[in-house]
Specification:
The complex is a heterodimer of chains A (424) and B (324). Chain A has 13 helices and 18 strands. Chain A is of the alpha/beta class and 424 residues long. In chain A, α2 runs parallel beside α3, α7 packs parallel to α8 and α8 runs parallel beside α10. The chains are: A alpha/beta (424), B alpha/beta (324).
């Protein structure tokens, strides 16, 4: 028996096909099929008037915490949060315990994710244990299913090691994702450096701590020819460097996160540890620069850096609090705000949340053409709701958006023809 | 005059986290209250029953001699029961979180917790988890409000006013909670604050707090009414913030020669403890311009006022400072 889903009257937004029209979309056995090409008797039929039907959203930067910190999140809870947020796939960072720096662990993550609510693409470590000393086995991890490499959370300090990582990744045709942070400059800091850090007596992290490393990665990408991706861009200076590197034809891509285009360092006031992350929230000009870079193509993806923590890491003194916030269940509505505010068109938003990540990671998805895998997100762009973090699917409740009135929600998330989330 | 407080004024703060939260009226009211309490310390029997039955806990996660003693004396002169928990005797070293410590202390029903902590914002965190009033006795590089208030009280006492004065603050502004409280407090009360020190000691955008950053210590001290120097932590040399104490002392130390640039009746202040010969030369520290020990005396009065006010003193009926 074939499993058929008929999505009727939705606004299909498929940037890769340059398609934006009201139409039906048919799915059979996990693939997109031509409308009317098969017998629809017994099909699940949904009338999606006023809704968007888009290629499944992909979050290329999440922390699922398994193995090792299952009290913060598991592959199961993290993917359920992803599906609830409209994501059909996530790429998970290797800073688990132990670090995902080998093929066996990569396989464990993939096996554990089988049957979960979203696809999981493991990202392996650049260095063994992410200690920044010796290269991890890129080839083994790639064979096991790793889609990229990063020492996210533990920036690669040694420029020679990063150069070798890029060269070796080039040979294995793998992507290097850089957490760009010069830790000598960020040391002792816990928020953006400026008037607010001075008023609050908190150690400041200058923008230069990020932009210096962005420039290093650009220079090394130029030197090695490797595919390099800059994670979580937060600052105007970094945006300018990436823009000029792209103009010179350097093979570089970059992402930013909803908190960087939604919040500024003002969110830290009151010592709010749910506004503490790395890189830190910056000033208004940085926020505007990130928005512009999402619009003009300097940035290629919106990724959440979903970083669940328990209150053990957050209900403490600000300087002792862990970096990071959850993001999977707020990313879509916060990003849709950019469309309502005319920063982005709807198609550009879908590029940033689906096609871009699929292209950068080299994974399926990002399009709804006939024959494509049926990873689909149905969005109600009008739906208003109050985000209540206590009711979220993620184990992590560390969100600065708790209680926010949001607009736009994933109504249905479909992974390979299987409905993994349906809004009640 | 600052002393004239509007008749319908009420002190509304349950907690004292910093000068930042205090209005001009609040500061004037605290200073006036402190002034009225000052003479208690000069009586043969230095005790009034105002806070009898109140429990006050000094919770100090950083070593402190004078601030803790000052708060304790202030509380005892008001007849409160005081208890001291210092980092060495607290559970901090056993891995208990600040929140758990707070809940445990709360269970013993204190009225005020006076907190000294190396983390900025620790008093706010504490206050979110307890019913007692919290008074910040210094948190990280954030604020030290009772020090800022006693500095203002001392200047008022010697100059009769704050508005229109020129105050020079010299030294390690970046690591000084005293500097932040003083900059906010003195500018709020109408003084002009000038800062001097190497740029390694200047926190980013400190001018946005209303202070003027000077290119030289001479420029800051020129025609100043008040010259305040800050303690230089000896470990700053190792952080490459200054090359040596010797060089710091030569370029930024306050000595008699530098003080010639200030107004004839200028006073010299220091929050203590002094590194003699580093940021402050003995000829100035012990000279006629020095009001450093007045600061210490006023500290007791200011802290008596803060304890009295956070416990509802200004609402009347709970007793006055006259020992009836």
């Amino acid at each position: 028996m074939s499993k058929v889903i008929v999505l009727k009257n939705g606004r299909i937004i498929d940037p890769l096909q340059k398609r934006d029209e009201i139409a039906d979309l048919w799915v059979c056995d996990g693939l997109v099929v031509p409308v009317g090409s098969i017998d629809s008797a017994g099909a699940d039929i949904y009338d999606l008037s006023g809704r968007w039907v888009v290629p499944g959203l992909i979050d290329m930067h999440v922390h699922l915490r398994e193995p090792g910190e299952e009290y913060k999140e598991t592959i199961e809870t993290g993917t359920r949060a992803a599906a609830a947020g409209g994501f059909t796939a996530v790429a998970c960072m290797p800073n688990t315990s132990p670090v995902n720096d080998n093929g066996a662990l990569t396989r464990f993550i993939l096996q554990t994710s089988a049957g979960c609510a979203a696809r999981v693409y493991p990202v392996g470590a650049i260095s063994q244990g992410s200690k920044g000393e010796k290269l991890a086995e890129f080839g083994e991890m790639k064979m096991a299913g790793a889609v990229a490499l990063t020492d996210d959370g533990h920036p690669v300090v040694d420029s020679q090691l990063m150069r070798r990582a890029m060269e070796y990744a080039f040979s294995h045709d793998m992507l290097i994702m850089s957490h760009a942070e010069e830790i000598a400059l960020s040391k002792g800091g816990c928020m953006n450096e400026g008037e607010i850090s001075t008023r609050m007596g908190l150690g400041g992290i200058p923008v230069a701590a990020e932009s210096i490393m962005v420039q290093r990665e650009i220079a090394l990408a130029e030197l090695t020819g490797a595919r390099v991706h800059i994670a979580h861009v937060s600052a105007e200076q970094s945006v300018a460097l990436i823009r000029s590197a792209k103009a010179r034809g350097i093979n570089i891509s970059a992402e930013s996160a909803p908190h960087y285009f939604t919040l500024t360092e003002q969110a830290v006031l009151g010592y709010n540890t749910n506004a503490k992350m790395s890189p830190p929230l910056r000033g208004e000009s940085d926020r505007q620069a990130v928005r512009e870079a999402l619009r003009d193509g300097t940035l290629d993806a919106i990724a959440t850096d979903h970083a669940p923590h328990s209150i053990l890491q957050k209900e403490v003194e600000f300087n002792f609090a862990a970096n990071g916030i959850v993001g999977l269940e707020t990313s879509l509505p916060l990003s849709l705000a950019l469309v309502r505010e005319n920063v982005l068109g709807a198609a550009r938003l879908i590029e940033l949340m689906s096609c871009g990540p699929a292209r950068i990671l080299g994974v399926p998805g990002g399009s709804l053409h006939v024959g494509a895998v049926a990873d689909i997100t149905v969005i109600d762009p009008e739906r208003r709701f109050t985000f209540a973090v206590e009711e979220s699917f993620s184990k992590g409740k560390n969100s600065p958006f708790d209680g926010w009135e949001l607009q736009g929600k994933a109504l249905m998330t479909i992974v390979a023809g299987r409905i993994t989330h349906k809004d009640s | 005059m600052v002393e004239k407080v509007q008749p319908d004024y009420q002190f509304q703060h349950k907690h004292i986290f910093g000068i930042e939260q205090l209005s001009v009226e609040d500061i004037a009211h605290i200073l006036a209250t402190a002034r009225s309490f000052r003479e208690i310390s000069n009586r043969p029997i230095k005790k009034v029953p105002t806070l009898r039955g109140k429990t006050i806990v000094n919770l100090f996660f950083e070593p402190s001699t004078r601030t803790r003693l000052s708060f304790e004396i202030a509380a005892k002169r008001m007849s409160a029961d005081t208890f001291n928990i210092s980092a060495s005797t607290s559970s901090a070293t056993k891995g208990e979180t600040l929140v758990d410590t707070a809940r445990n202390i709360q269970a013993m029903s204190p009225d005020v917790i006076i907190l000294r902590h190396s983390s900025s914002g620790a008093p706010q965190l504490l206050a979110r988890h307890i019913d007692a009033s919290v008074i910040n006795a210094g948190d990280g590089a954030h604020e030290h409000p009772s020090q800022g208030l006693l500095d203002m009280m001392t200047v008022m006492e010697h100059k009769g006013k704050i508005a229109g004065l020129k105050l020079a603050i010299i030294g390690d502004i970046a690591h000084s909670r005293v500097a932040v409280s003083d900059i906010i407090g003195f500018t709020r009360m109408g003084a002009q604050v000038y800062l001097a020190g190497p740029q390694t000691f200047m926190p980013k955008d400190i001018d946005r707090l209303g202070a003027n950053v000077c290119g030289s210590v001479q420029e800051a001290v020129q025609d100043a009414d008040v010259v305040m120097t800050l303690r230089i932590q000896l470990e700053r040399q190792n952080d490459s913030l200054i090359p040596s104490l010797r060089e710091y002392s030569r370029f930024y130390g306050v000595n008699r020669q530098l003080m010639e640039l200030a107004k004839k009746d200028a006073i010299v202040m220091h929050p203590g403890p002094i590194n003699r010969g580093v940021e402050l030369n003995p000829d100035v520290a012990d000279g006629r311009r020095s009001v450093i020990l007045d600061q210490v005396s006023n500290g007791v009065a200011v802290r008596m006022a803060l304890l009295y006010l956070v416990l509802g003193g200004s609402k009347g009926g709970e007793g006055q400072g006259d020992g009836r």
